[in-house]
Amino acid sequence: MIGQVIINGLLNGFVYALVAVGLTLTWGVMDIINFAHGEFLLWGMYGAFWIWALVGLDPLISLPIVVVLIFGLGVLTYLIVIRRVLNAQGLTALLATFGLSMVLKNLTQFFWTANYKNVTTPLVGSKSIKIAGLFIRQDYLVAAVGALLLTFAVMVFIDKTKTGVAIKATSMNKAAAQLMGIDTGKIFAITFGLSGACVGAAASLMASFTPIYPEACALYSTLAFVIVALGGFGNIKGALYAGVLIGIVESVGGYLIGTSFKYLVVFLIYLVVIQIRPRGLFGW
Amino acid sequence: MAELLKIEHITKKFGNLVANEDVSFSVGENEIVSLIGPNGAGKTTLFNSIAGYYPPTEGKVYFQGQDITGKPAYDICKMGITRTFQVVKTLKEMTVEENVMTGAFLHTGSRRQAKKDAEGILEMTGLLDKRNVKGGSLTIIDKKRVEIARAMATRPKLLMLDECMAGLNQTEIKDVMNLCVKLKEEGLSLLIVEHIMEAIMPISDRIVVLNAGKKIAEGLPEEIVNNEEVIRAYLGDRYNAESKKS
Amino acid sequence: MVEILKKYRPALVLLLLFILIPITIGRTTDVHNVIIYILIYAMVGEAWNLISGFTGQTSFGHAAYFGIGAYTSTVLLEYYHITPWIGMLVGGVIAAALAFVVYFNMFKLKGHYFAIATLCVAEIMKTIFSKWTWVGAGDGIALTPITGLIPGVGKSAVAKLAWLSLDVRNRLPFLYTTLAMFVLVFIICAALENSRIGFYWKAIRESHEVAESIGINPRNYKLLAMCISAFIAAIGGTFFAQFFKYIDAITVFPMSVSMIFVLVTVLGGLGNVYGPIIGAVIYYSLDLIMRRLTGGSGSGLDQIVFGALIVLVTCTEPRGIMGIVERIQEKLHGKKKGGEA
After folding, report:
1. d(Cα C319, Cα B9) in Å, to the nearest integer?
2. pLDDT for C104-146, tens place per residue?
């Protein structure tokens, strides 16, 4: 039974991780807390839903389209808003992203009401397959594997490509990066886009089995904050491990002391870990 | 002369790196002692060990006979040792007067008293006409003045100045030198870390020389100038460098 | 004394407006409600400003104290018939005690790591209170009218003492009581800012190392800021519960509530005693206007316009509304000086 609980948490955790990787990118590279991150995810879900409803493409098939759309949303956000508040002191940037989150969230309500939307005929159904005595829902499995692969893709991109290395360099020392001839403005725009792409992909993966409504992503964004901090700000590997850890903790906690308390365990874990590792599990 | 500060066999290691090795010296009451040495000699590390920013790996620090080794900086300040920083750390969003008042609050809970105390110090440091300027918008020399003024406001018995002349021009260095002499006349002891030998020689009562973390000499300024090991380690470096250039 | 009055002239003008508007141009329940919200959220904003504005430790979890204040006074009133005036003090002490215990060892965390920790504390409170049957669990607690609570007390007597019992049905007395409490909080915060404690808080915000070098123990002063802040936030929570007449965990503990305090303060001006009240006035007046223009909040249009406005303000003046005010002042000042010369 506990094996079943852990596998469920693990599957959830990979999706959490992908959302958190998106958040940790902007947080680490630009030191910006993007409160609109959850709303990016929300717009990704609505995007996936409407493509399915209007054109009939399943969210899993339309994933590349949604990724490109939310990448664009991220770049636009940077160019229109973030660029202007990047060097402001105090919590100005935070306030700006918060205003943006209000706009994005309520736009969905304005256009499409607060009612639930569901992808009623998903490509991969909710039937379970049995592996080694464990029941695994097919749609969860596909989402988890997809999220894991995409997280690896982001890691490879950051480590191996020229742009990725430039992003890394900028996150370590902005001034030095500029001296080296890196166009930090361009890097920031790409980082914001990439962050959007991560949640766009996560949205597509989840859209088949998640009810879609304006408040759908509040929990994901809160969890993403905790995961990012737990893993260490700006640390992609940290976000992956912390995401998986939080997924499993949530699932096991829910099993042991009741589902209604599962998030209590999640938040407690952060408070405990941070006592021992004040800069996150993988921070330094 | 009564001993105010006594440092015994201080060693500080960061991992495998030995920043200070077995350094001992003392500062007497109403005395100006300068700590000199080439870059990377471990002056600031020693400074931080004394002022409580990190505990030394080995050795003891005594102040007025009391063991203060490893005590936190704020407690050491309360006992009567206040330091300044090599990289000036002005409280940017506070005015010059508020900067100094923050220091003065160590001895009084009353805002009026703190303001009064600050006024005297502002006058002495020549900052009176800039009292309402925000710390962030000062010139470098004024920032250094604020740094010293704020430290003085805590009424220390021993004032520790960390490279307070770096980055200043000749007249400004003279200003700071005069200020140091004035402070001594007020009855303070000073421990000065400095790079600029010319500035430090005339005002120091004694000089301690560090090289590669170790104390290589201690004595009166004129003795130090003629000490061969010092010339080799410290001045020699510079002469070598200059001859290489030419 | 005269000097102090002069220094806080803008505050006196504001106070006069708050006294006059409810009985002159704003005599509708709608406006009264908005003013009460402004005062409550500005009150907690002032509290938040102490730890995050003055001391520089961002908190995303002030809803924890706000909620504790709301629940404590409500439980004392409903279950034990104790007046909210005592309830708010008890709530304040509990909130401060919680802050003390939880954050005793937490200030070694830097910046964002600390902010996320505060968020976690509030979320834990939310979970506990939404499952705790003694305080109504998911159903929350609806506050009974005072007349129904205390048997034997005639209706007229209670009505006369409406402001004493914090009964909101008598709206105008409640509004003025809330105003009085806000003024008290404002005075306390302004006094703190000008005292040794305030100087030390700011020194810690500007530089930990400098603070330590001049004899300040940063941990102790941060802890003090957090505890005072928690106490005041809990009092705000009590006023909220008395005003809203219904509380549950989702209403008082969520992150969105924590963010209101952050929002009004940063919008008005971080680290400035006027910040929270100015921010709250602008936030809720605009909210009211927008609701009237767009016809209710069902469509979300008011929030869209409002969010866009926030983005606009931050993009043009990073220091918030107080930044704009300062800029205008500088201009006026400059002109005056120019005229004299």
Report:
1. 51
2. 988 888 888 999 999 999 999 999 999 898 988 888 888 876 6
C301 contact A CB<8A:
yes
CA distance C226 to C102: 10
ipTM of this predicted structure: 0.88
**pLDDT, tens only, B115-140:** 999 999 999 888 899 989 998 888 88
**Searching chain C, which residue's CA lies closest to the CA of residue A95?**
C263
Note whether residue C254 is domain-resident.
yes
Query: For chain C, how many structural domains are there in total?
Result: 1
B92 and B190: one domain?
Answer: no
Q: Considering Cα of C235, then C240, then C245, then C250, what sign does the dihedral take?
A: negative
Is C90 a member of any domain? yes
**Are B64 and B125 in the same domain?**
no
* Separation CA A203–CA A49 (nearest Å): 10
Contacting partners of chain B (3+ CB pairs under 8 A): C
Candidates C107, C127, C265, C317, partner chain A, best to mutate (most A CBs within 10 A): C127
Task: Give the chain A residue nearest C120 (alpha carbons).
Answer: A267
Residue B80 touches chain C, beta carbons under 8 Å: no
- Chain A residues with CB inside 8 Å of C121's CB? 267, 271
The verdict on B97 and B39 lying in the same domain is: no
Q: Which domain holds residue B106?
A: 87-155
The CATH number given to whatever domain includes residue B205 is 3.40.50.300
- DSSP strand pairing (A134-137 vs A128-131): antiparallel
* pLDDT tens readout for residues C14-59: 899 998 888 888 888 888 999 999 999 999 999 999 999 999 999 9
Which of C59, C265, C283, C315 is the best mutation test for A, with the most CBs of A within 10 A? Answer: C315
Could you tell me the pLDDT band of residue B154, with boundaries at 50, 70 and 90? very high
Given 3-state DSSP classes, what are the helix, strand and coil percentages for chain C, each rounded to the nearest 5? 80, 0, 20
Both tokens assigned to B136: 């962030």
User: Is the residue at C231 inside a domain?
Assistant: yes
**pTM of the predicted model as reported, rounded to 2 decimal places:** 0.90
**Chain A contact for C255 (CB, 8 A cutoff):** yes
Q: Which of residues 84-123 of A touch C (CB under 8 A)?
A: 84-85, 88-96, 98-107, 109-110
Interhelix angle A138-160/A236-257, nearest 10 degrees: 160
Residue B196 near residue B218, CB atoms below 8 Å = no
Residues of C in Cβ contact (< 8 Å) with B94: 199, 202-203, 206
Contact call for residues C102 and C223 (beta carbons, < 8 A): no
